Amino acid sequence: MSSHDISQPDDNLPHEQEKGGEVEAAGNPFADPGLPPHEHRQQDIDERAARRSERTIALLFTVSMLATVAFIASYVAFPVDKIIYVFPIGHISALNFSLGLTLGIALFTIGAGAVHWARTLMSDVEVADERHPIEAAPEVKAKVLEDFAAGAAESGFGRRKLARNTLFGALTLVPLAGLVLLRDLGPLPQDKLRHTKWAKGKRLMNYNTMLALRPEDIAVGSLTFAMPEGMKESDHDFQTQIAKAALMLVRLQPENIKDKRELDWSHDGIVAFSKICTHVGCPINLYEQQTHHVLCPCHQSTFDLSDGGRVIFGPAGHALPQLRIGVNKDGYLEAKGDFAEPVGPAFWERG
């Protein structure tokens, strides 16, 4: 940096450059021409035009509020499996289409209203603020605060109450769309996780053959997987329901059953327990015939099926839920009700 640069720090400020600007413009095509004369908008000189703009802004914010309400209503009204035809998109989920459309309108109209407010009602006077970088002097700071106060007054935020209040309404309602989506984090324990498809009188169906099971179909020492009568793999919610209702059957010698309730809930040594591990919900499928233990392959939790399905090793928090079973008049195994406690991880013990 030359001594001239150090001694003349204000050479590059706009008001210094403007000196002799007319001479520079004649010989320098890149000279700063300065700001053009300010042209007033219709809203600046006609209060009726300003009020029309305010009503337009309020209309956009109101549409945003209505779209947010429609978003929430669509979430409640449309089932997840409803399909509709929309030209030219084709077949699409009614829920996804309605949520995307209403949320898009809600966000777009807030943006459009804010842009229209800025372009028609807020001050559009261009001001060249001459100041050095780094820390400003106290008088400059005071000027900034003064300019901010003036800008706030010129924006009409305090005076244009209709536009301001509808903006607040739109901004308040839009976050509700995000809160509604939290509902998809999982089913509510009270009405979803506490109940399965098992009910009194439902027959036990072999998971592989889809045939109703009789006691003689289950040999001593064997492991059989079952599901409730009436479920089909073609059902839209089959995977959700089988994840809770999956059942494993083992036939023990009645004298080998240690737990009295387990004995009362069994039939001729056939015991029925949930197949879902009580640690993190993995399916159990490893059976040790000599010890009557079942092992979860995910984290090695081990349960004793001859002693109420209690945990004897691993991180599982509680015993496997047992299903009370019996035999109907036609000789088929049937459930006497649902599981006594929710299946899977022990969320319900923390109630």
Plain-language structure description:
With 351 residues, this protein is of the alpha+beta class. The chain folds into three domains: 1-26, no CATH class; 35-121 and 156-185; 191-350, Rieske [2Fe-2S] iron-sulphur domain (Rieske Iron-sulfur Protein, 3-layer Sandwich), CATH 2.102.10. It contains eleven helices and twelve strands. A four-stranded antiparallel β-sheet has the order 3-4-5-6, with helices on one face. The chain has a four-stranded antiparallel β-sheet with strand order 7-8-9-10, with no helix packed on it. Strand 11 and strand 12 form a beta hairpin. Helix 5 runs antiparallel to helix 6 (94-120) and helix 6 runs antiparallel to helix 8 (161-181). It starts with a helix and ends in a 16-residue tail after the last strand. The model is unreliable at 1-9 and 17-21 (pLDDT under 50).
Summarize this entry quickly.
The chain has 351 residues and is of the alpha+beta class.
